[in-house]
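Annex B, item 7. Sequence and C-alpha cells for protein A, then protein B.
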Amino acid sequence: MKDITKQKFSRNKLVERISFALGNLGHAAFYGALSTYFIVYVTSGMFDGLPQSVANKLIGLITALVVIIRLAEVIIDPILGNIVDNTKTRWGKFKPWQVIGAVVSSVLLVVIFTGIFGLAHINWIAFAIVFTVLFILLDIFYSFADVAYWGMVPAISEDSKERGIFTSLGSFTGSIGWNGLTMIVVPVTTYFTFIATGKHEQGPSGWFGFSIVVSIVAVLSALAVAFGTKEKDNLIRNAATKKTSIKDVFLGIIHNDQILWISLAYLMYSLAYVVTNGVLFYFFKFVLGKPNEFWIAGAIATVIGFSTAPLYPVLNKFITRKVLFSIGQMAMILSYLFFIFGKTNMMMVTIGLILFNFTFAQLVVVLSLTDSIEYGQLKNGNRNEAVVLAIRPMLDKITGAFSNGFVGIIAITAGMTGSATARDISASKINTFEIYAFYTPLLLSILALVIFLWKVKITEKKHAEIVIELEKTLASGTKKANTSEVNVELEEIFAPASGQKKLLNEVDGNTITGIGFAIDPEEGNLFAPFDGKVDFTFSTKHVLGVVSNNGLKAIIHVGIGTINMRGAGFVSHYVDGQLFKKGDLLMSFDKKLITKNGYPDDVIMYFTQPENIIDVQQIDNRVVKQGELIAKLTFRSER
C-alpha cells in the first residue's frame, strides 16, 4: 500500500510539473506574438491597400499608442495583482484568472490581427478609438494571466526546492515558446497566405492564421495549468504579505544606489537586446533578402539559451559574476560588428547570432539585485525584497514598450512597410536601418558594460563582507523601545535543533557577540523556536530573521563562513512573511556539504535588540532535543 501511495504521489507530482510547464509554453508564445510580431504585422499587413502616406500615419499612431499603453501596464500590474490576490473561488484564486486572461486576450488578439475587420479602410478615426480600447483590454487580460501564472508557484508547493523546479520548468518551456515562434512565424504566415490567395508570400491572411495558431496554443496551455495543477491551502498562502506598488519600487531604487546602478545597466542591456530581437525579422527580409531563413535566429537562440543557463553555475564557481557579465556583454558587442560588417554573408550573421545570445546578463542581474537587499539593509536599515522581485519584470515591460515604438520607427524610416521587398530598399535606407537597429543598440550594450564595471560594487566577496557586518550590527542592537508605548513580555525559546548547546563564544570562528546561543546539530534540519513569522531571509539562504508573536526579534544563522556557499545545500520551507508554529520545519541544510567545504555547521541564534532584553534565563550547556525549552527572555516590546 505504501509503494502504491508513493507511486501515485510521484505520478501526480510529475503531471503537475508538466502541466505547469506547458502553461508558459503558450504564454510566452503569446507574449512574443504581441511584443515582437504584432508590430511586424502592423508595418507590413494591417494597412494593406491603403495609400502609403495614410498607412505610415496609422503605423505611427498605432506605434505611439502601443508604447503608451505598455508603459501604463507597469503601473496597472500591482492593481491587477491585488485583484487576483483577493479572488476567492472554489477553483482557487489563480487558475480562474489564468483561464479567463488567456481566453479573452486570445480572442482580442485574433480580432486585432484581422485589422479590426478592415475598419481603417472605412474610418481611420473610428479605427484608432476601437483599437485603443481593444488593445488596452487585451493588455489587461494578458497581464491577469501573467500575474496568475507566476503567482501560482507558492500556491502549488510550500517547499522552496520544489518551487525552484516549477520556476525552472516554466522558464525552460517559455524559452521554447518564445524562440519557437521565431522558427515558425515565416512558414506559418506564408502557408496561410498561400491557402487564402495562392501566393507564396506573407499577407494579411497569413498573419490572421498566425494569430489563430498562437491563440489556440495559449488557451490550451492555460487549460493545462487549470486542470493539471492544484492550488494548496497552506500557511504560505494565508500569510500576510505586503503589496508592492509602483511607488514602492521607485522609492526602493532611489534609496539604494546599488539597485539603481544594477537596474540602469540592465535597462541598457535589455533595451539593446529587445530592440535587436524586434528588428531581426526586418534584417532577414529586407537586408539579407532571406525571410525563409529567419527560423535560424530562433534555433540559435534556443540552443544557446539551453547551453548558457546550466553553464552559469558551473562557471560561477571559478569566475565572478562581474567577469561573466563582462564576457556576455563583450560577446554582444562583437555580435553587432558581425551584423554590421558581415550583413551580406550568412556565415558571419550566424556567428553574430551565436555571440548575441551568449549572455549571462539576466542571471547576473537577478543575483546582484538580490544581494543588494543586504546592502540596503546595512546602509539605511531597509530591506526591499518585494521591491527587488518587482524590478526586473518592471524593466522588461519598460524595454518592451520602448522596443515596440523603436521598431515601428525603424520600419517607417527605412521604408520597410507595406508590400515592400528587399529590392525596394536602397543603400541609404539600409544605412538608416543599421543606425537604428545596430549602432544604437551597440552603444547601449557598451553603456551597460561600463555602468556595471564602474558603478556596481556588489560582488560575491563584497556581499559576504556586508552580511558579516550586517549581522554584527543586528547583534549589537541600535534601537531602544519607546518607553511610553512599551510592554514587558516573557518569551519561551525552544531548541531549533537537536545537539550540543554552546555559548556564542564557544563556536569556532564566530565573531557575533550579544545575547544568544549555539547548537552543534545532530541533523540538518532547523525548526521554529517559538510561534511567530519569518521576518526576512538573506539572499544566501543560510540566515533568516524571525519575530515571535510577542515581538521578540531574532536571527538564526546556520554555519560559520557558509555565506560563501551562496545558498548551495540550503533548502527553505517557507516564504518571507510566513506565519509558523513552534516546531515547524523552517530549513533543511546539508551537513556533509557544509563540512566538506571546510565550515562549521553550528546553528546560532541571537537576539537583535539586546538593549530591550531585561532578563535571560538559559539552561546549562548540554545536549538538547529539538523542541525542548532552553531559555526564557523577559524583554520590552512595542508590539
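Protein B:
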Amino acid sequence: MSELFDRVDALVASRSPLPPPAERKRLRTAHGLTLDEVAEALEVRRATVSGWESSTKATEPRGKEREAYARLLKQLAELYPADANAGTPVQDTAVPATFASTPAPAPEARPVSAGPAPEAAAVPTGQDTPSRSAAAPVAASRPAPAARPSSTSRRPAARKAAPANTPAGTDPRFVNGPLAVVDVDEDGQVLAYCVGGLVLDVPAKSIPTLVDWTLKEAKLGQPKLSGPGKDADPLLVLTEAALERYGLPVALTEEERLAGRLPEGHKVIKQLARADWKLTKRGFGPWARIYRPAQGSERNCVQLCIPSWNALDTRHWGDAGQLPPAELAQLLGTYASRVMTPRGSAAVTGLELMTAFHPPTRASEPDANGKRHSEHNPGSLGKDPVNPAPCEVPDGHPLLKDLPRFHRRTPAEKLFEEILDWARPLTDDECTKRYLVGIDVNMAFAAGANGLVVGLGELTNVKNPVFDAKLPGSWLVDLSHVDLSRVKVGKEWVELDASLLPSPFTPTGERPTGPAWYETRTVAYAVELGYDVAPIEANVRYENGRYLDSWYNRLRDAYVDTMADLGVPADVSPQEFLKAMDGYKDRDPNLAIVVSAVKATVKGGLGKLRERPRGEGWKSGEPWRALSRPTWRPDIRAAVISRTRINMHRKIVKHAAYTGQYPVAILSDCVVYASDGPSPLDFLPYKDGKPLPGGWKLGVNPGLVKHEGTQTVLWAEEVRERFEAPELNLARYIKTGEVTNKDDGE
C-alpha cells in the first residue's frame, strides 16, 4: 500500500503548480540566487534552469525536478511577495549587481549583461579592501543607443556594501572577481570597476605601483581550472583616461602599431625596469604582461588590456571597447567566468585554455627525502615541442628549406586538410524552386573536437602500413577510386548522383586524381563509405588521447549557457528554436558579444595550433617564434578540420540518400539547399517533430544547425550572371544577399 501511496504522491508532484516564467526569475533574483546555484541544488544544468525561466512551454520541469523547483519557488514567494511594497528581508549574502532590486544607474549608462558564474560575481565588503561598493544597472530591455559618454564620470550610484562573509565556493584570494576596468572620474580619482558592480578606489600613482596594488590589495584573479594548473593572473583593463593618468599614449603611432608595442625607451617601461618588473617578449603592447619571477607557489604577474590600442578586436568583441567601465567589466567578467580570464586575443585565449586544462608538468610523488619534483603531466603535450612530419608543415618551414625556391608541393607532398569551399550550378529542377536556404552548423569546429583522439607525443613513420582508424596521424593513400555514386550509408549501399556532391577528400570538392596525404578521419570515412584503402606511408602517433575534451566542454557550456540567457534554450522544438533565434542578439547586445567572443575563441585557438610567421624579419626556411611552443601542433589542427568536414559530408550524404536533395553550395560550416519555402523546415525531413537520424537537426548545441539566411533563386541567378560566375559560392552571401569579399559564414 505504501508503494501505491508513493506513486500517487509522485503523480500529484508531477503537476505541482508553478508561477509564470517571469515570476520564477523575479523570485530567484530577489533572493540573490544565480542560475548556477539553483542548477546545482536541483542537480540539473544551468541552461535547464534558464529554460524554465523562459516563456517556452517545452522547457517546463517534470517529475522530481518539478516538485523540488515548486518547493523552492513557494518558499521564495513567502519571502518576496509580488507586491514590491510588502518589504524585502535583509540579505546575508552578496547579490550580483545585475540582480540588484533597487538600481540607480547613471543616466548615460547602458544596462549591464546578466551576471557571470558565482566565482566571478561575488561582491566583497569594504572591510576586506579599501573599496567603494556600487551597484551596476539591472539587466533589462535596452534603450535605443545613445551617444557614448566620455571615459570619465561614469561612477554607478553607491549602494550599501555587502557583509564580510564570502559566498560559498568563492576563493577568498579572488573575492573581487577576475578583473577590473581602471578609469578616472571627474574628480580625478582613479577607480577600478569590478564584476558585479563593485568599485574600488585605486591609490596607485604609476604603472609599477598599480601592479603592486593589484597583487597586494585588489584581490583579483581566478582559480585554476585543473589540479596541476595555475591560477589566472589578475587582468586590468585601462581606459583612455587611465592611460593619460599613468603616462601612456591613448593611441599607438603607426610604427608602434605595426611593431605591436611601445618602444623600449618609453618612460613607463623604464619605470617598470627600475622597480624590477619585467615584460614578456611581446613587450608593452595591447596585451602587456608584467611580472617578476615566481617565488615558491606565489605568482607575481598582472595582465593589462588596452582597448584603445585595439586589444579587443572589433571582429570578435564588437563595440566592447567603447562601453562604459562598469559594463565592460561585467561583459569581460561573464566571458572570464564561463571561459577564462582573457590572456590576449581570442585566439591566444583559446590556446591558453587548452594548456590550462592540461598543464605540461605536475608535481611528482614525494621522494625518499619527502621532496616533490616536476614531472610530465600525462595527457598533456609536454613542455617541449615535438617534430612534425614534413607533409604536415606549411610552406616556409625549416623542414622544407632544401626544396627549390619556387617549388609547389603536390597533394602527395602536403597534408591539406581544410574546410570545404564548393559550389555548383543549379539543376533545372532546382531552378523551378523559389528559394535558396542556408543552414549553419553551430560551433562546428568545437563539435569536431568533441571526443577526438589526437596525437600527444612523437610521430612514427611507417612504410606500407595497414590502416588503423584508431591511430591519429597522416596517411599517404590513393582515394581516387571512391565513387560517390554508390556508397554505403550505415549498412546499406545507396545510389546517388555524384555530380551533385562534393568530394569529401579535397577542400575544393574535386575528386582526387592520385595518392595524397590525409588525416586519419578522412581515410576512415573512405572505409565507412564502403571502399578499401591501401596506404603507401604513414606518420602515426602511438601516444595519443582526447586532449581537447575539457576544452570543448568548457566552450560548449559557455556558448549554450549564454545563448540560454539570450532566450535561446536547448531542447526545444525546431519551430520554437527558429523563433527564439530571430533577433536574439538584440535582446542583450553585450551578451551577444560574449557569444561572438566564445566562437572566436574556438576558431582562433585551433588556428594557433599552426600559427604562421608574423613578420619580425622572418625569412623562408628559418624557424619562427611559434615553433618553440609545444602547442604548435599542425597535426591536431588537421584532425579537427578533417573531422568537422567529414561530419558535414556524412550528413549531406544521409540527407541526399533519404530525400533526394543535394547541396547547391558549401562554405566551411554553411550549406545551401534549394527549397520551395523560405524556412529550413521547408526542406529538412522532420517527422512528428523528430529529425532524420544522423542528418541535419535544428538546435543550439554544437553540431546542430541554425538558419543562416534565405535568398531567392532569382537572386542567385542574377548574381552569378552579373559576375559571370556560374559556380560562385552562394553560401558566402546567403546571409545578407550582399555580394562582397567578406566571408559571412560563421
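Comment on protein B: The radius of gyration is 28 Å.
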